[in-house]
Amino acid sequence: MQNRRLMFWTTMLLVAMVVLAGCAPRAGAGDAAAMTSDPMELVVDLPAIVLDVQSDGSVSIGNVPIAQLGAMAGADLSTIAIDPSLVEFMSAGNIQHVQVNNSSHGLLLLVNGEAIPSITYDGESLQATADALNAFGMAIPMLDTALSLVDQIGLGVIMRFPVASGVAQIPLYVEGDSGSAMEAKMAQDDFLAAVGSPPRVNLPIFYEADGSFSIGDLTDEDWSALTGASLAALRLNTSVIDGLAASGINKLGIGTDAAGIHIMINDSALPTLDWSGGKATHLLNLADQLGLWEMLAPGMNIGEVLTTVEGLLPVIQVADFDLTVHLPGSGMAASR
What is the three-state SS of the chain? Predict the structure, then answer.
């Protein structure tokens, strides 16, 4: 029995050493550890684990096939593989690596070393997420406990794809002002220089118990008369209103600014979809690089569409837009 336990822990140690040998520097490494100096608090802050994908779709860590590591640990990992056609697609589009990185500030997603739209959060927004799921009847056991630990854990996984012969290697993490970040900043600065100040739109919508709504001092019927278009489709079914009220929800909001897209439930902010620092620009460039636009809209003049989108993106990103839906029973709705 003693020999069996010794063999088990020796094997686990060997697997851990192989995994650590296949690690690489992680963007934001050290943030979780810096959050606290209390030796009694849980903190996990590790380098990024690198998964190397071969052209046949097999995966290895530190030059050791993942199936072999699984066998050493007593787990069947032989089914873990990537579709070879996807590997070929990523390599043809020069997607060299994709990284998923959890830090004390959020979930960072990087492709070719640059971030794409990611998730930022803090302790309050994580708790608001748990409260929202509970309110909608989607309670998950131990969710509150798990979310309370998220910002104390720094982990990352990098998946590397085969690089075509003669193509320059891209760093796993591009620090400082990258091409996409600089491109986005210049476009936003040019737009703000032209208009003077960021556009501001505040759109409060007040719903009644029967599902009708008003914006400002005008009812939905008034707006239909003004615009000549029926807005009946925007009315809410009374069962939806009753269901939200039963869940304790009386206000829903969505807003955008230079930092990203924000969602509010009642007065609590959920995690933010972060598009700052050129993340949205990099995503558009990657989609073009992979030929996704041609796949989604074959025959369309993609060049013109991209030019239009790139022209609108700085306007959308720097604008302060807030849409808040006030349901019956909310303080604002009751005061009207």
Answer: CHHHHHHHHHHHHHHHHHHHHCEECCCCCCHHHHCCCCCCCCCEEEEEEEEEECCCCCEEECCEEHHHHHHHHCCCCCCCCCCHHHHHHHHHCCCCEEEEEECCCEEEEEECCEEEEEEECCHHHHHHHHHHHHHCCCCCCCHHHHHHHHCCEEEEEEEECCCCCCCCCCCCCCCCCCHHHHHHHHHHHHHHHHHCCCCEEEEEEEECCCCCEEECCEEHHHHHHHHCCCCHHHCCCHHHHHHHHHCCCCEEEEEEECCEEEEEECCEECCEEECCCCHHHHHHHHHHHCCHHHHHCCCCCHHHHHHHHHHHHHHHHHCEEEEEEECCCCHHHHHC
Task: Tell me the per-residue pLDDT of 50-88, one tens digit each, with 9 for 90 and over.
Answer: 889 999 999 888 777 776 766 655 666 677 789 999 999
Neighbour count for residue 157 (Cβ, 10 Å): 14
Query: What pTM, to 2 d.p., does this model score?
Result: 0.79
Surface-to-core class of residue 267, CB atoms within 10 Å of its CB (0-12 exposed, 13-18 middle, 19+ buried): exposed
- The tokens for 334 are 């009751």
Q: What is the pLDDT of residues 315-329, one digit of tens each?
A: 888 889 999 999 987
Could you count the other beta carbons within 10 Å of the beta carbon of residue 280?
Answer: 22
Cβ contacts of 104 within 8 Å, gap of 6 or more: 28, 31, 32, 34, 35, 151, 152, 154
- Boundaries of every domain in the chain: 1-104+152-175, 177-336
CB of 73 within 8 A of CB of 18? no
